[in-house]
Design a protein that fits this description.
alpha+beta, 26% helix, flat, 2 domains, 189 residues, Immunoglobulin-like, 9-stranded mixed β-sheet
């Protein structure tokens, strides 16, 4: 048997096995998503509540426990919905939320943009990173009884590694946490 034929007999099944395993691994890990978007609009502000599911892989949780900072950047857009016509953008808010474990104090430091919150365990830190209640300033006054909708998207902003560690721990770039745009209706009062 020639070397080329032997290589084909071994390489083709091996490549097919790798492709099959890659598909199974990506199908096994659930994609992060935004769920439960709801809230209300009043005057010139919208209060939007939502949650992020499947945002943290087990590897990310272990990295968080070892002191690596994890940050998400989120965009919330509010629009007035017109039936059979173009919707009107009413406001948009972009913000970041980050968490890291402080080994000296043995607490998780959650930064929601308005200050730092100290949390005692990883479960409360994960809840703080995945449960949201956001106030979006609006450019126009709202009208009771009209239809309004919020669009939300979130992505992993950064993993807090120093420059020498980034070259060693290349896995931080492999954490692909980004949601699709999700939407939910808001009540007007």
């Amino acid at each position: 048997m020639s070397g080329e034929a032997f290589l084909r007999r071994i390489a083709v099944p091996f490549i097919l096995l790798i492709v099959h395993l890659a598909v199974n691994v990506s199908a096994a890990s659930p994609k992060p998503e935004i769920v439960g978007i709801h809230g209300q609009v009043r005057g010139r502000e919208a209060r939007v509540l939502f949650a992020m599911q499947n945002a943290f892989t087990p590897e990310m949780v272990e990295a968080l426990k070892s002191g690596i900072e994890i940050s998400f950047k989120t965009v919330v857009r509010v629009e007035r919905v017109y039936k059979g016509w173009f919707n009107v953008s009413m406001g948009e808010l972009q913000f970041s939320r980050s968490v890291r474990y402080d080994a000296l104090s043995r607490v998780y430091r959650l930064n929601r943009g308005g200050g730092e919150e100290l949390l005692p365990d990883v479960h409360s830190a994960l809840a703080g990173m995945t449960q949201y209640e956001i106030v979006v300033p609006l450019t126009l006054d709202t009208e009771p009884g009209k239809t309004y909708r919020a669009h939300v998207r979130s992505r992993l902003d950064k993993v807090g590694l120093s420059e020498p560690l980034k070259s060693i721990f290349f896995f931080s770039s492999l954490w692909d946490v980004e949601t699709e745009w999700a939407r939910g209706y808001l009540t007007a009062s």
